[in-house]
Design goal:
Blueprint lengths: L9 E4 L3 H8 L1 H7 L4 E4 L7 E3 L6 E4 L8 E4 L1 H4 L12 E4 L5 E7 L5 E7 L13 E6 L2 E7 L8 E7 L4 E11 L3 E2 L1 E7 L10 E10 L6 E2 L10 E4 L25 H4 L3 E2 L2 E5 L6 E7 L13 E5 L2 E7 L7 E5 L8 E8 L8 E2 L1 E8 L8 H14 L20 E3 L7 E5 L12 H8 L5 E3 L6 E2 L13 E3 L4 E4 L13 E3 L4 E2 L2 E3 H8 L4 E7 L15 E3 L2 E4 L2 H14 L7 H7 L6 E4 L4 E6 L5 E6 L7 H8 L2 H6 L8 E7 L2 E7 L6 H5 L26 H21 L4 E2 L8 E3 L5 E3 L6 E2 L8 E2 L13 H4 L1 E2 L1 H17 L4 E3 L5 E3 H10 L17 H14 L10 H16 L28
Parallel strand pairs: 2-4, 15-17, 28-29, 29-31, 30-32, 31-33, 32-34, 33-36
Antiparallel strand pairs: 1-23, 2-14, 3-4, 5-6, 6-13, 7-12, 8-11, 8-14, 9-10, 9-12, 11-15, 15-26, 16-17, 18-25, 19-24, 20-23, 20-26, 21-22, 21-24, 27-28, 35-37, 36-38, 39-40, 40-41, 41-43, 42-43, 44-47, 45-46, 48-49, 50-51
Length: 902
Amino acid sequence: MIMGASTHFFSVFFPSALAFTLTLLLPLQASDQSGFISLDCGSPEDTMYTEITNNISYVSDAPFVKSGVSESISSRMGADNAPFPRQMRSLRSFPQGIRNCYNVSIVNGSKYLIRASFLYENYDGLDMLPAFDIYIGNSLWERVNFTDTHMEPSIELIHITSSNEVHMCLINIGNGVPIISSLEFRPLLNTTYQTVSRSLSLQSRFDFGLSDKEEYRYPYDVYDRIWSMVNYYGHEPVTASATTGAVEENNYKVPSIVMKTASTVKDISLNTKNSSEYYVFMHFSEVVELQPNQSRVFNITHNENFFYGPLIPSYLSTLTVSNKDPLNASNLHLFSFISTNNATLPPIINAFEVYYVKDIIELETNQGDVNAITKIKSTYGIKRDWQGDPCVPMKYPWSGLNCSNATAPRIIYLYVQVFYEANILKGWITLIHEKMQNLVYRNLSASGLTGEISSYISNLTMLRTLDLSHNELTGELPEFLTNFPNLRVLILTGNKLTGSVPEVLMQRAEAKSLTLSCAFTYPNGYSRALQKKKTKRINQNVLIFHVAEHLKRSIQERLLKSKNQQVHYSEILVITDNLKTSIGEGGFGKVYLGVLSDKIQVAVKLLSASSQQGTKEFKAEVSAEILTIVHHRNLVSLIGYCDEAENKALIYEFMANGNLRKHLSGVHILMQFMIPIHWSFKNSSTTVLSWKQRLQIALDAAQGLEYLHNCCKPPILHRDMKTSNILLNEKMQAKISDFGLSRIFANENDTHLATRPAGTFGYVDPTIHLCGNFSKKSDVYSFGIVLFELITGKPVIIKSGTGNEIHIVDWAKPLIVEGNSQSIVDQRLEGCIEICSATKFMELALCCTLSTSAQRPDISDVVKQLIKCQEMAQNRTTSHGPPINRNFSYTSIGSDSILSPR
């Protein structure tokens, strides 16, 4: 508990003579805007003007960013009709690339207020509200999420810089095109807004009392903070004395026009973000010239704990009170202002600011690597997303780069195919050699390289992987390829190389210390004889080394026998034979057939650059929990992944018989995996699933879901259970797939996951629309829909002959309750279904889809009931059994049922 001033919990700033002098000089300061950086984003490159609403001088952002598209909202509504200041009438959008960055030069070690403003206003005519991330250095500053076309979000950060440049990046998260309207930097005194080496992001800033305008900023505020007028419920504006003049400032320099107004105050409550710590800054000034018999004295408490006091506002003089240590995270912060016993006037407040803590880390890539890659960029005119620091944010390096996790990151992977669009690759290796000796991974595949393999590669002594495949390289393999002590992968396929391969490389490949893949033509005839050179060499007319099999074996050992489940993109190309066989496509991207050693098949989901859900799904799937703890015979195994810059892939076990939905719909798709694939094979036979097969599939899927709910610690929700996410292997064993929407509970006691919509239309628990939360019982509801599909053979949304649509539960339930349950059974099962097990199966489906989630069974109970259904079906009979109980309830399954209300 905070006991008082002796705890040093708060800080207080009083005015000074210097501050008063600066107040008198305000008009002069306001005119020079010293240190201001004001960028009108998207305006023409030579733009320079003074905005009439605030007298701030703006310039174009073009010199500070090398990508993006200039857009204008004025073009849609007319410049004269646009009700926005000029700097908000244009914007820069970033439709290309995941990251696009601004480089802004500032004064190292100085404190700045950084403000970014955004206005969508349907500039693109698509009426699609975007959401995207903003990074400063290596740290997420804020997620910008538009909820209305006309909203004008603005984010502010108070930050002390650690270099001479600030790199601010807009990150495309797959929810629309990032945009920005203006970017502003305002220098502050380092003695203001003090924290322990942490940055502050603005939540709110209020001006209390009656004002002539809704908001004030520059030139009233020399720091160009934006003060918004607030009429807090229960607060009464204070009538200032007629003689009220300018208010004496302290270092915070709150504008006199803000401090000359005040409101009485009893309480101020703040709804805050759970995960954040907070700082508040309260500004006080007496605006009434008190009589001798009047006094205004009060204390301040925070959540009923002492915060500051006694506080006596000084007439026309600013006093600032703030917490020295951050306020603990809480849903609600309640500040109470309590008059002392001898006070005759109520507490007042003039201005109030709230900030939450941001830990901004400004890493910088090793300067030598920066110089090298910058020279490459300049030489070849590369634009794309090559702005800002090459490696920072570390989650989003430049396209084609991967970097080490060091305090000063190093470039360790370079994919030079990003240079291909310039078609000016010849000679780039020479430049690389001069500046980047520590590069350890080089992928030059499909880069349009021509000529001989450059001798400068020999200086990259730390290379571990070299991929020169699918270029136009000619000449013989150079001897220096034998001199790389750390080389583990060498891929040379798809070139016009001639001659022979050094025997040293062949020996290393045979010893499995090198994975080697090469195929090229030797024009002078076929010969197995070794040339009589100092280094023996082997010649072939068509020299095809199936050494790729060694690579497949190495990959297989890592994926299936060890915990190292990450592979390189070059290895993805090997196991998929250069993405030869596509077996499907979905929201994540294309799915390719892969083959490991011993003919083991896998499915490789390759992230598409245009994927709307891929990045999120990739992050969800490639988690330590999924890879290390989620293993069950009825869950499709994620056995590996690739995460290299723009090349991202997920590797799963292959499920030869596709998904359950296709079997139930009568279209049996061979070689289908993970997502609905709209293929058909003319010669493929359609096999109707028997009743016993359907029971086993239901039990398999239920056991997989039971493992996620009740065996994983913490539990996991699937959140998208449906027949197309139940896959069948060659033995018709069912496994649950697609954990792209799965989430792991924070703790075992949590029974819901909030906020983000998930699932597929028709399968989603209708109670979610009321409470907004997924729970285990939501998965059970979706599984009940699957049970209905299994017994009826119909899709979740049934279309009538007239084109009307009805949900499968709404169609089946009345027929079951009326005693006409046999009419819903899949006609293809006629004469081949055991009626008692079918009756129990229908009742179970109804239990799972009850409208009240608390009445639905736990998935473990569902498993037990499905086992009983199987036992009933063992003694197959096609005789007509009793109809389902018309007075069906949760407990009507039978006296031996373990299902009971929970």
